[in-house]
């Protein structure tokens, strides 16, 4: 009935949680990697500050990202440029003021050489001035507000995830190019939701938006939304719902008997966590994202395989972004031979980094320091005995206009 | 058509809020105990319901097990830590300690079930929508309405027609007098507390197919429960009932007309009601 | 309450001087150490200013508010918007922040102050939530939940050490102001009305007016605190109006002592220190914080002040376990 049986994992997690609490209560918050064959270390340790939510609403996203960081860093034995990498992890919670405090702690008290992470856009924007004035090389691995690499960009801030525009515009374009010219636009009414809706509209161009339905963030009752969708008599609903909103919407959509009758194209709203929560009720839903677990390239096959073996669960988009962020950090440090004393030199080195990521070719736009990448259209299907996102179409190599 | 839908949505959401609000009303209004961990009991009920459904592939036992777990935890908490804090003048202590318990529950549930979103399908026979001609409506919300009305009836029976109910009302109205009359106020209030949190846990189970569980849900539900209890006036189950209907309908019709301002509407409603009647809709001048 | 040490004028003077010295040393640490410590110090001082104002409302007015963050948020947004559009002039930003907050206090107080107890609690919360919704939705003005970042530093106080000094001066000045207030006729009437409203009114005192005035004053001071915080952080966010912030302030008041003006200051310090220390060490810091609160209620009668008093008494009891010594001091202690 439910899809994934998670009970044993819960017990493991409970026990692990208690163990972590006990261990962490004795430690400083820095993470020591497992013993590995001696790598060539010639310089002093390099501290990387990681800002991820360990508690609160985004805790599971933070955990995925930390998994992603660790997975890549373990491959290089936590060594880059002849220096041992030491992660200093701080809890972003869901509060930008707290995130800023932690960023200050990492930069001023812990004296980290570089920063990475940040789930929340508000937190990233709050930190921007501090990071810029302190000239700290920062890799944003999730926060998706357009402005972070547009109006509020800084040369020291690199983003490896996406902008809201970057994944929504091509989706809108795909809709109109594939005959879905009458849609309902539905989105969570907050900053990110609005940016996605705006970009969808732009990509959709001259198509007809029969009804626009914003709903409050954290909405628990989508009945009126679903009624309006039904009343509009369209075949396709495009839009965006975050986390729990997506889960509740999909459940209630199915309970109203509409699953499969009206198509849904929901930006990046349905990833591993949502699929784990709703299972088959999400079948058929289209999403646009920079990756899918089923994306067929050698780097991804290896990544998914390693992730499954290491963490005993499916990777998520957050893990991939962090994995790439870690690779970016390592390759940048390698490029400067471990000399992180000059932030401008780090910036110049990072700008030219290109590699084959699990999502395809990874490179930066030198003017915005935001990733240029392929965006894929996926659909939730049953494959290999599990419900997952399958790549349906490559929407092209998309660059954020900046 | 939309208006009929919105009506049913509002009633259903209202009944879910009633389960929460009735529980808090019992605990607070009757037991005179500020319980900021009420939302935590909601999510405990929800997580228990989820685990039961997950293991037994059957939703219905959760509706018994969830409230039982809630009542058990409530009794344990009362016996172990809350016992000495009942009564007038101890409100700051009650606020602090139940807030502490709420924080503990938040992290403990996250440790036990992870921070991932948990959701379940509506159980049969409520997983198919109702189709009356052109009008299609999911059936599970109707089930929630049924549960709410049933609980209302049972509570009314308990409080108005049983000896225990009379004792509860006496202990609530005037604890000292009740004690003089030989009513064991301690155990009675403890039972009321357990019943109140059991209702919250029941709400968590019943709400699970419609809502999802994730970190933060506990404080959201606590806030709603407080709104309902305050709008309704303290200690009156009928007050909690009408208040939850009012909030539910405001929410659903609000979403229809002003979707951007739904949250504001709930608090606007609260402000309006309290400005009009500072003691709540059915509140009496409390001592 | 029996003291473990006998209190001669000399020991009292030494103890008091020592205490003041310790407080001064603690207060001087942030600007001396700079960086992160200075940031924590600024957060503590600004929040303490807000919590102390709330403490007056709660401890003397009997008005438990869960919407105090509204003043904090309003002050912050006023500072942010003024600074961005006109300039970060202290003589403009701070009075306007105070004025806006006071105005909100009067406008809402007219309605909320007719309720007491939990009704007042929820009404203040409701108005704060309305503030949250307005800042969240009025995106053209406030940029919604992206927050308003890039707020310029307060002119003349770009160095955070100077800002810290300013905030500390405000805190000290407010402390003196509130000390005067609670001893003044207005303060006494407020306190009397807290204990028996009917009697105070019957005696002819304009209770409602006095409450409104104090509500406006505490609101205004909290608005200034919020403005200072906005300049320190460089951004404001709708979350500044949230229940979480209001609850933190209220907890800080209840945690130590409701009837001491310095109580909330200590409470905020404890909460900030604990959150900072705990969250660096475990992801379940909420749990430990919760356990601390439970422990304080169960064993620290009267909040942390009570806990300290109990520790003091425990020391006295331990002293008595020692064999009777030869000096008079020990004998005196042992006989208590």
Total count of strands of chain C: 2
CATH class value of the largest domain in chain A? Alpha Beta
Instruction: Enumerate how many helices of chain A there are, as a single number.
Output: 12
The value of Rg of chain A in angstroms is 21 Å
Using a beta-carbon cutoff below 8 angstroms, give the protein chain pair with the largest interface and the number of residues from each chain: A-B, 51 and 53 residues
Could you describe the largest sheet of chain A, including whether it forms a barrel? 7 strands, mixed
Overall mean pLDDT of chain A stands at: 89
- As for the CATH topology of the largest domain in chain A, it is Rossmann fold
Which descriptor suits the 3D outline of chain C?
globular
Total DSSP E strands of chain A: 16
CATH homologous superfamily placement of the largest domain in chain A: Response regulator
Percent strand of chain C equals under 5%
Helical percent range of chain C?
A: over 70%
Reading the helices and strands of chain A in chain order gives: HEEHEEHEHEEHEHEHEHEHEHHHEEEE
Apparent shape of chain A: globular
Q: What Rg of chain C is obtained from the alpha carbons, in whole angstroms? A: 22 Å
Category by helix and strand content of chain A: alpha/beta
Helix content of chain A: 40-55%
Q: Biggest β-sheet of chain C, characterized? A: 2 strands, antiparallel
Can you give a write-up of this model?
The complex is a heterotrimer of chains A (402), B (287) and C (336). In chain A, helix 3 (96-109) packs parallel to helix 4 (121-134), helix 5 (164-177) runs parallel beside helix 6 and helix 8 (243-255) runs parallel beside helix 9. Helices cover 41% and strands 23% of the residues of chain A. Chain A folds into two domains: 8-162 and 296-369, 3-Layer(aba) Sandwich (Rossmann fold), CATH 3.40.50.2300; 165-289 and 376-398, Rossmann fold (3-Layer(aba) Sandwich). Chain A has 402 residues and is an alpha/beta fold. Chain A has helices spanning 7-24, 59-75, 96-109, 121-134, 164-177, 191-204, 223-232, 243-255, 272-278, 298-311, 317-335, 343-351; strands at residues 30-31, 46-52, 79-80, 83-91, 114-117, 137-140, 157-159, 182-188, 208-215, 236-240, 263-265, 286-289, 355-357, 360-365, 370-383, 386-398. The model of chain A is unreliable at 1-36 (pLDDT under 50). Chain B is mainly alpha-helical and 287 residues long. Chain B contains eleven helices and two strands; from the N terminus they run H-H-H-H-E-E-H-H-H-H-H-H-H. In chain B, helix 2 (38-56) packs parallel to helix 4 (91-113) and helix 2 (38-56) packs across helix 8. The radius of gyration of chain B is 19 Å and the shape is globular. With 336 residues, chain C is mainly alpha-helical. Chain C has a domain at 29-242. Chain C has helices at 9-33, 35-59, 69-85, 90-112, 117-137, 139-142, 160-183, 185-195, 197-202, 207-233, 243-256, 263-279, 285-299, 303-321, 328-334, and strands at 148-149, 235-236. A two-stranded antiparallel ribbon of chain C has the order 1-2. In chain C, helix 1 (9-33) crosses helix 2 (35-59), helix 7 runs antiparallel to helix 10 (207-233) and helix 11 crosses helix 12. The longest helix of chain C is centred in the middle third of the chain and has 27 residues, at 207-233. The radius of gyration of chain C is 22 Å and the shape is globular. Chains A and B meet through helix 1, helix 2, strand 9, helix 7 and helix 8 of A and helix 1, helix 2, helix 4, strand 2 and helix 10 of B.
């Amino acid at each position: 009935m439910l899809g994934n049986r998670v009970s044993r994992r819960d017990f493991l997690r409970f026990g692990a949680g208690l163990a972590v609490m006990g261990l962490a209560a004795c430690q400083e918050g820095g993470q020591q990697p497992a013993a590995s064959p001696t790598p060539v270390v010639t310089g002093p340790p390099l501290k990387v500050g990681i800002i991820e939510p360990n508690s609160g609403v985004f805790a599971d996203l933070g955990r995925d990202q930390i998994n992603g960081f660790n997975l890549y860093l373990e491959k290089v034995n936590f060594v880059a440029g002849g220096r041992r990498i030491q992660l200093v992890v701080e809890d972003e919670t869901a509060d930008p003021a707290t995130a800023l405090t932690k960023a200050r702690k990492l930069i001023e008290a812990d004296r980290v050489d570089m920063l990475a992470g940040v789930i929340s856009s508000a937190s990233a924007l709050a930190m921007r001035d501090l990071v810029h004035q302190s000239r700290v090389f920062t890799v944003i691995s999730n926060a998706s507000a357009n402005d972070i690499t547009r109006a509020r960009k800084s040369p020291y801030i690199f983003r490896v995830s996406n902008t809201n525009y970057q994944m929504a515009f091509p989706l809108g374009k795909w809709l109109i190019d594939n005959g879905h010219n009458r849609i309902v636009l539905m989105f969570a009414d907050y900053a990110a939701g609005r940016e996605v809706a705006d970009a969808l509209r732009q990509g959709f161009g001259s198509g007809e938006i029969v009804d626009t339905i914003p709903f409050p963030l954290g909405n628990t009752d989508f009945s009126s939304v679903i009624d309006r969708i039904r009343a509009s008599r369209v075949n396709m609903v495009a839009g965006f719902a975050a986390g729990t909103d997506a889960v509740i919407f999909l459940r209630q959509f199915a309970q109203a008997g509409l699953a499969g009758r009206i198509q849904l194209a929901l930006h990046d709203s349905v990833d591993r966590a949502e699929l784990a929560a709703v299972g088959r009720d999400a079948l058929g839903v289209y999403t646009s994202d920079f990756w899918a677990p089923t994306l067929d390239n050698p780097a991804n096959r290896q990544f998914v395989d390693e992730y499954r073996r290491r963490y005993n669960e499916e990777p998520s988009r957050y893990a991939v972004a962090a994995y790439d962020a870690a690779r970016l950090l390592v390759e940048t440090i390698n490029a400067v031979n471990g000399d992180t004393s000059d932030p401008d030199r780090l910036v110049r080195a990072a700008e030219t980094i290109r590699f084959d990521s699990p999502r395809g070719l990874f490179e930066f736009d030198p003017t915005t320091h935001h990733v240029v990448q392929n965006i894929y259209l996926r659909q939730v299907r049953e494959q290999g005995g599990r419900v997952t996102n399958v790549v349906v179409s490559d929407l092209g190599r998309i660059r954020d206009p900046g | 058509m939309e208006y009929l839908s919105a009506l049913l949505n509002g009633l259903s959401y209202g009944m879910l809020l009633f389960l929460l609000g009735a529980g808090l009303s019992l605990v607070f209004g009757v037991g005179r105990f500020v319980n900021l961990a009420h939302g935590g009991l909601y999510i405990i009920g929800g997580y228990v319901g989820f685990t039961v459904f997950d293991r037994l592939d059957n939703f219905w036992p959760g509706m018994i097990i969830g409230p039982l777990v809630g009542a058990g935890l409530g009794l344990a908490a009362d016996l172990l830590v809350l016992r000495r804090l009942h009564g007038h003048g101890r409100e700051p202590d009650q606020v602090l300690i139940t807030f502490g318990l709420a924080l503990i529950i938040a992290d403990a549930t996250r440790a036990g079930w992870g921070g991932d979103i948990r959701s379940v399908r509506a159980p049969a026979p409520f997983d198919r929508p109702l189709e009356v001609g052109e009008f299609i409506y999911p059936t599970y919300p109707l089930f929630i309405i049924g549960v709410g009305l049933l609980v209302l009836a049972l509570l009314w029976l308990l409080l108005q027609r049983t000896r225990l109910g009379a004792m509860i009302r006496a202990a609530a109205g005037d604890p000292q007098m009740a004690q003089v009359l030989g009513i064991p106020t301690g155990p009675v209030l403890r039972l009321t507390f357990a019943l109140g949190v059991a209702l919250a846990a029941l709400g968590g189970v019943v709400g699970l197919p419609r809502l999802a569980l994730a970190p933060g849900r506990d404080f959201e539900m606590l806030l709603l429960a407080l709104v309902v209890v305050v709008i309704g006036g303290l200690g009156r189950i009928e007050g909690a009932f009408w208040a939850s209907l009012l909030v539910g309908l405001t929410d659903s019709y609000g979403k229809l007309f002003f979707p951007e301002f739904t949250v504001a509407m709930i608090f606007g409603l609260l402000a309006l009601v309290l400005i009009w009647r500072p003691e709540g809709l059915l509140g009496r001048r409390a001592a | 309450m029996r003291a473990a040490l006998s209190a001669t004028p000399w020991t009292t003077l030494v103890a008091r001087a020592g205490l003041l010295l310790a407080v001064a040393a603690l207060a001087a640490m942030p600007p001396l150490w700079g960086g992160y410590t200075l940031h924590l110090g600024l957060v503590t001082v600004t929040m303490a200013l807000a919590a102390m104002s709330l403490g007056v409302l709660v401890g003397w007015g009997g008005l438990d508010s869960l919407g105090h963050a509204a003043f904090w948020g309003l002050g912050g947004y006023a500072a942010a918007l003024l600074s961005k559009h006109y300039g970060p002039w202290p003589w403009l930003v701070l009075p306007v922040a105070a004025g806006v907050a006071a105005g909100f206090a009067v406008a809402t107080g007219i309605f909320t102050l007719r309720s007491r107890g939990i009704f007042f609690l929820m009404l203040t919360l409701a108005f704060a939530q309305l503030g949250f919704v307005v800042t969240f939705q009025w995106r053209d003005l406030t940029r919604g939940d992206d927050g308003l970042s890039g707020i310029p530093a307060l002119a003349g106080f770009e160095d955070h050490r100077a800002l810290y000094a300013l905030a500390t001066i405000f805190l000290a000045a407010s402390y003196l102001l509130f000390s005067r207030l609670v001893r003044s006729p207005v303060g006494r009437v407020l306190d009397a009305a807290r204990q028996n409203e009917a009697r105070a009114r019957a005696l002819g005192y304009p209770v409602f007016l006095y409450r409104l005035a104090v509500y406006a004053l505490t609101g205004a001071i909290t608005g200034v605190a919020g403005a200072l915080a906005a300049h320190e952080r460089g951004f404001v966010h709708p979350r500044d109006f949230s229940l979480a912030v209001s609850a933190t302030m209220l907890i800080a008041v209840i945690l130590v002592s409701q009837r001491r003006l310095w109580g909330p200051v200590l409470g905020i310090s404890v909460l900030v220190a604990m959150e900072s220390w705990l969250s660096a060490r475990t992801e379940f810091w909420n749990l430990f914080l919760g356990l601390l609160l439970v422990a304080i209620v169960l064993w620290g009668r009267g909040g942390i002040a009570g806990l300290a008093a109990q520790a003091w008494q425990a020391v006295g009891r331990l002293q008595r376990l020692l064999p009777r010594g030869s000096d008079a001091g020990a004998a005196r202690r042992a006989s208590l």
